[in-house]
């Protein structure tokens, strides 16, 4: 299989390791598949510290990281403070990409929408203070997520990671200035809404990610995911887009570089 120019903008090497593939092995496999860089995502204080450590330990392998507070956990006030202060301390670190995962998750319901909303605001506020992109997790909460991000229009920016809503919401978020990032779900046969979104957005607003170890694309669907599978997601994008494959490959790569360098996608 051909190697493409690729950046995995969202992976969880620590969770892949918990599921049996060591971090060095994941990285090696990813490099073998042609992946140039990857963004390791923090979801609480502990994993944010780990993500920063990985970016230093594997500096040569081009690991970038985020610091986040995932809405799937009921993260308490003292930990939130620690995460916020970790962000403050790392603003100037060139390997540090942005604030996230943060967002709203009304599917798992580990904490109330009200408390998720308060935390979400705290992290959006710190992102605009330092002009950092946000990495948004949103599940069964498109209306409220859109509502909150609309309040920050023109100030907050970043990516709607692992996009799972419909074409209409893809365009609404894109118009607020967010990249829309597609995971392995775009390769699932029955994901018609996601296909429509991926086909109709401006190419300039699209990112791809594995979100590994989750959401493995075919031909490995059902198995543990890792960043080396990103190429299958890119190939699915080829079939959904009107541009030439090379244009799609180059533009998504360029978008990913811009994202890592904390540049916003803006339409307005
Ligand atoms: Zn994730």
Question: What's a quick, concise take on this entry?
Answer:
With 268 residues, the protein is α/β, with parallel strands linked by helices.
- The fraction of residues assigned to DSSP E strands is 15-25%
Provide mean pLDDT, rounded: 96
> What general form does the structure show?
globular
CATH class, anyone?
Answer: Alpha Beta
Rg over alpha carbons: 17 Å
What is the H-and-E element order?
Answer: EHHEHEHEHEHEHEHEHH
Helix content: 40-55%
Distance between the termini: 39 Å
Walkthrough of the structure:
This protein has about 270 residues and is an alpha/beta fold. The protein has one domain (about 5-260): Metal-dependent hydrolases (TIM Barrel), CATH 3.20.20.140. It is built from ten helices and eight strands. α4 (about 75-90) packs parallel to α5. The N and C termini lie far apart (about 40 Å).
What layout of secondary structure does this protein have?
Layout: E1 6-11, H1 13-18, H2 23-32, E2 35-40, H3 45-57, E3 63-67, H4 77-90, E4 96-105, H5 113-129, E5 134-139, H6 142-151, E6 158-160, H7 167-175, E7 178-182, H8 192-200, E8 206-208, H9 230-240, H10 245-260
Parallel strand pairs: 1-2, 2-3, 3-4, 4-5, 5-6, 6-7, 7-8
The structure holds zinc ion.
Task: Name a few traits of the molecule.
alpha/beta; TIM Barrel; binds zinc ion; 10 helices; 8 strands; globular; eight-stranded parallel beta sheet
């Amino acid at each position: 299989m051909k190697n493409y120019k690729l950046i995995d903008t969202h992976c969880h090497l620590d969770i892949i390791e918990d599921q049996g593939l060591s971090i060095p092995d994941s990285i090696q496999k990813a490099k073998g598949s042609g992946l140039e860089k990857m963004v390791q995502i923090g979801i609480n204080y502990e994993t944010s510290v780990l993500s920063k450590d990985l970016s230093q330990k594997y500096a040569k392998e081009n690991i970038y990281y985020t610091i986040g507070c995932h809405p799937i956990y009921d993260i308490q006030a003292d930990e939130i403070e620690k995460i916020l202060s970790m962000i403050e301390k790392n603003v100037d670190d060139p390997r540090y990409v942005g604030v996230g995962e943060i967002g709203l998750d009304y599917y798992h319901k580990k904490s109330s929408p009200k408390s998720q909303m308060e935390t979400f605001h705290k992290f959006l506020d710190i992102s605009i203070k330092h002009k950092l992109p946000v990495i948004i997790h949103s599940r069964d909460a498109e209306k409220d997520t859109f509502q909150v991000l609309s309040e920050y229009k023109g100030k907050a920016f970043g990516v709607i990671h692992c996009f799972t809503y419909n074409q209409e919401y893809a365009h609404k978020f894109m118009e607020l200035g967010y990249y829309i990032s597609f995971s392995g779900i775009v390769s699932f046969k029955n994901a018609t809404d996601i296909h429509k979104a991926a086909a109709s957005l401006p190419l300039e607003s699209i990112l791809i990610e594995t979100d590994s170890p989750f959401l493995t694309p075919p031909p490995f669907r059902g198995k543990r995911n890792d960043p080396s599978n990103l190429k299958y997601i890119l190939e699915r994008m080829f079939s959904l887009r009107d541009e030439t494959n090379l244009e799609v490959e180059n533009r998504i790569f360029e978008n990913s570089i811009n994202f890592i360098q904390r540049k916003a996608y803006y339409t307005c």
